[in-house]
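ok so for the tutorial part 2 we go from a plain amino acid sequence to predicted structure tokens. step 1 is just haveing the sequence, like this:
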Amino acid sequence: MQKFRDYFLATLVFPVGVFVVMTFWGIYAVDRELVYPRALDKIIPPWLNHIMHTTIVPFLLIEKYIVYHQYPPRKSGLITLLGFALLYLVWILWIAYYANIWVYPILKVLQPHQRAVFIIVLLFLFISLYILGEAINKFFWGKERSVQSRKMKNTQKVK
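step 2 — the prediction. this is what the tokens look like for a chain of 159 residues:
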């Protein structure tokens, strides 16, 4: 169960959580109507907006500091993350095609070539966030913990 937890947190929870915060507030700073129209202020109070789009990062960092996570090999971690991103992208495009609704208004205002560039940039952001999560894990826990856990695994394999 711990292996699954570590894999899930490393490959999806941390990069997607930070991605949500960065993209939401980045786009909000440029044109809030593209991610959070003013009409939502009447329905969703500002404190709830911050719970959904701000508090994620501090909680993820606290969790990373409190709990050690064994990161998977980078290749398999990135394959999982990019596989998830691709599935999510297909879902967004499917809704846009069949229902003629853009889940994220920013995608509606972009031209097709701009949309493609935007998506590619976001994929690189995903990759960067995975690597950042790995670096933060090493910063909090040091290389010693990683070396110790590898030694323990090797010892268990020999037995």
